[in-house]
Amino acid sequence: MTYALVAGVLFGLYFSLVGIGLNLVFGVMRIVNLAHGDILMLGAFIALGVVGIAGIDPLFAVPLAFVVFVLAGVLLYWVLVPRLQGSANPEMLSIILFFGLSQVIEAVTTIFAGTSERSIQSRLLGTVFTTIKVKWFGGKAGGAGPIQIFGQGFPAPWVIAAITSLIAIGFVYLYLYHTRLGTLTRAVMSRRDEALATGIDVDRVSAAAFGIGLGIAAVAGVFAPFMFGSVTPAFGADATVTSFAIVVLGSLGNPLGTALGGVVYGLCYMLVQTYLSSWADLLPYVLLIVILLLRPSGLLGRRVRVA
Amino acid sequence: MHNASKHLLFILAPLVVVFALLPGVYQNHLLLFNFVIFLILAQGVNIIYGFTGYLPFGYVGFFGAGAYGFAIMVMHLQTPAPLAVLVGGLVAVALGLLLTPLLRLSGAYFAIANLAASLAVLHFVANPALEGITKGPYGVSLTGTFNPTHAYYAAVIVMALTVGAVIYLKNSPFGLALQAVREDAVSASMAGVNIVKMRVIAWLASALVAGLAGGIYAWYVSVFYPDNVFSGEFSIFAIVFALFGGVATITGPIVGVLILYGIYNLIGFTTPQYFQLIYGLLIMGLVLFLPAGLVSLATRRGWHVP
């Protein structure tokens, strides 16, 4: 029981990281990024590349993935989104547009990397910490063993992923509530047209949010090989649906709600898997539908007027 | 001549005749069958997306429900195949009824919820705990009813009915009312349109055709797994085909299926990843440059496209 609860929280924090980028993009641009899971997958491949080529701790892939995908996101924004926003029904068409993008990403990755499952030895993650410990405090070198929480052992990568997620969510909070661009972002989120009317450069704000959303997704992807065991180019689609469940659970358009949604999701997932394992696959979808029907605005959502 | 009868004569009749005669000329019957199935699904998407604006991202849920409705009737009650196909359609309608609350959601929320619903049905059917009823993830084998020739003609009949339904929507006050609801629900309801009833009827109609198609598919292939008949590709293909040609028209989805599924069969089987790449780029280009589909090339020049 304790094991399931703690594992649920650890996974939940990670799931929040998975969902938060999607939520930022949807909240700011009203665009459904169906390629979200594929960005995750690409992040995982960056981690694979860092381990495979440089042979260092995959944690170094985190800043690399973030920077690469912030730039890619800003670029992609200017190529795709302004044209999309000009069409008759941007919200619907965005689903199809980003589905196309996800197909392209998946195909290109398959052409270059093949369809086989890739994984990274989990003891590689966090070696940077043990190395520092050895250098500064002496002691034995070696892979990080399981970490003890409440008397139960958990794989070290789970804990590291959860801590990274907390830090990333903290940064998103700082960005949204303590920087000028963040304040503008929230203005665009609540009323796009009024923000435009007050002279906010909506495109610039949106491009930043899109970049950050993709960057965070790629960071989440770095940990995917450890949390899910392995990745394939086709892994993206499932990840997208899971992210949606988390985001809707928390409430669309409220990035901090996603943190709550992720934890609730993680807890439910672990509990169902412990007690009713054959029904665990069903959970995210049923949860998603029930939440959408009962509280379309999510757990923390404000009431929105639907004309 | 009346518009509707013109459409019946010049669009539906040639289509049915061509697909009824082709098996005698062309040997790859499975390919022809798949064309007919995708014509049904694309027109089914057209009914719900083209005329009401709801994007059914989990449309395959109805298809799979129909296939499993067929399989369960045949396995447990030894029903004759045509009857089991009808039951498959009804199972899909029942699923549609169960999902009517989703119509309260709008825009992307509906699409996501519908996708989740189809995946939920997949995991429900594929659950090992239900092995006694659905055979769980181990798949279904229905060799007793295997008869591809009859199944093919059944598919052509359902295709004719579906295209007929779209012709009706295109030429009737009912279809006009639906489009009014799609454009502006509030104004339409002020003008005396019963929004809820309209949407539910269109929703159930599109569920019915997908369920019938699923039942016929099960009849034709006779051995399948949950992952086959609930494959997201059916929804995606149907939506993309319909959009590529142009929704809310009769010819659009037909053109879309013939062109895109034709390309798919030319290059898709040998090098699937290159097809996927071309396909993805095609979809993106379509949304960015031709959001109203191929038919908009003609309508922009002022030609009328049915």
Please render the helix and strand layout as text.
The complex is a heterodimer of chains A (307) and B (306).
Chain A: H1 2-29, H2 36-54, H3 61-85, H4 90-113, H5 127-137, E1 147-149, E2 152-154, H6 156-178, H7 180-190, H8 192-197, H9 202-227, H10 236-250, H11 255-275, H12 283-294
Antiparallel strand pairs in A: 1-2
Helix pairs in contact in A: 1-6, 1-9, 1-10, 1-11, 2-3, 2-4, 2-9, 2-10, 3-9, 6-7, 6-9, 7-9, 10-11, 10-12
Chain B: H1 3-25, H2 29-52, H3 60-77, H4 81-98, H5 107-125, H6 131-134, E1 140-141, H7 148-171, H8 173-183, H9 185-190, H10 195-221, E2 223-224, H11 226-229, H12 232-245, H13 251-268, H14 272-289, H15 295-300
Antiparallel strand pairs in B: 1-2
Describe the model.
The complex is a heterodimer of chains A (307) and B (306). With 307 residues, chain A is mostly helical. Chain A has one domain (2-294). Chain A contains twelve helices and two strands. Chain A has helices at residues 2-29, 36-54, 61-85, 90-113, 127-137, 156-178, 180-190, 192-197, 202-227, 236-250, 255-275, 283-294; strands at 147-149, 152-154. In chain A, strands 1-2 form a two-stranded antiparallel ribbon. Helix content of chain B is 76%, strand content 1%. Chain B contains 15 helices and two strands. A two-stranded antiparallel ribbon of chain B has the order 1-2. The model of chain B has no long low-confidence stretch (mean pLDDT 87). Chain B starts with a helix and ends in a 6-residue tail after the last helix. Chain B has a single domain (3-300), classed as ABC transporter involved in vitamin B12 uptake, BtuC (Orthogonal Bundle). Classes of the chains: A mainly alpha (307), B mainly alpha (306). Chains A and B meet through helix 3, helix 4, helix 10 and helix 12 of A and helix 5, helix 12 and helix 14 of B.
